[in-house]
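Ligand: magnesium ion. Inputs:
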Amino acid sequence: MIKNLVAFLLISAWFTSFSFAGNTGKGKVSFADNSVVAHRGAWKKNNLPENSIAALKHAIELKCTGSEFDVRMTADGELIINHDPEYNKLPIEKTKFKDLAVFKLTNGEKLPTLEEYIKAGLKNNSSTRLVCEIKPSEISKERGKVIAGKVVDLVKKMNAQHMVVYISFDYDILKKVKVLDPESITQYLEGDKSPAQLKSDGISGADYHYSVFVSHPEWIEMAKKNNIALNAWTVNAAPEMDWLIANNFDFITTNEPEILMERIKKSPIANGWTLKWSDEFSYTGLPDSTKWVYDTEGNATGWGNGEAQFYTIARKENSHVENGKLSLTAIREECESKPYSSARLNSKAAWQFGRVEVRAKIPAGIGTWPAIWMMPGGWSFNDGNWPAIGEIDILEHVGHNVNVIHASAHSKDYQWQAGTQKTAVIKVPGATENFHNYILEWNSEVMRICVDDTCYFEYKNEGLGETKWPYNKPFYLILNLAVGGAWGSAEGMDKTEYPQAMEVEYVRFYQKM
Ligand code: MG
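Predicted complex:
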């Protein structure tokens, strides 16, 4: 993010100085070092009207990197700021400005013209781009281009080119803007063109509904490769914000700029992590076979714990992705002479050090034993050299001790069989009802395990060698839902409560660069 941002600022500075050549100039603006674009200004928290000058001013006070607004043109050619095609039930394009302007905004402010809006946006503002959405005309395509021409003329007349980003759902409007001001920054809203297409048409950014990027994750990389800015609208919930932040979006357009700023501050990216691998489970079907492999090796022997489930391979009843989630489901049924079926997935990738973040909801049923954990790359169950080889448990939960989450590390000298494993527990109210982030951060010195923002397990490398710290090597991730076993069935098995599922919204793996 920082690297991209520096590159972006350099490019912006270059554009800025370039576009100043020949005009009076207002000095350089170094836009705020965040990705927050306030959608129709920052209005929500303070109950201001959307698209008001007050909302723009508040976005500037918050130091958002951008504040978005919508431009329309009245019947008599005045450019005004309003989202809907009607204002106080009057169709803007068929009504004269003076007849619209008799109605005030809800905060008593008068209906802003584009000129007044830009003027406010140039005042005491060294942080916030003016993200100017040119609304297509409802009368004709041609009128839309006329509006675009008038907007660009006014921006030039006010020497505001260095502050403005033009956005539109109408591709021809953006092309027109580009012709009138070749140095202008333009972003397309509709979401139906690839970043490579935008690049070839001279458009500077993809400002798409975030679901477009969820269903076209390849466009994120394509945009970065083609130097196309990434912007997503309108993102108001923390999980979506976190995903866009993790993917280094240049801009995130939101009604909740205050929340987004908090998410950015807390994000792994802000703390120096780079996303290296993830599965967002944004597809439908079996788990992605390029990322996951089914682990069945211990089925015959009850996985060393007398477990009651048979892990199946590629059986959608036990492992399935839908509605943005992976479900690993334990079913009470005769399966290969075991009384339950379930699934266990190993990541194909393994990593030495980093941050693993798994957003999951675990089942509550008595007898269930879900786990999110890691074993050394190349290790498989029948190798038998456990636990000397090393094991890191990011989450374990047993249904008879509901909402108590365990984190552990096992090695030759610190292990479960001797009761000497490094371990800690945390009570997470609602862990079986809501999604939480289960996180491991680990390097050669220390490993830490956290739930959401609370780190409750820390094990420092004592420097006493491999028998106590076998963790300086790559580990892969395991997601599984066991049933029974010595621990899982310690208080019996409630046979009325199946099927039971562990659901996972995403797995993200970060490393420090
Ligand atoms: Mg808009």
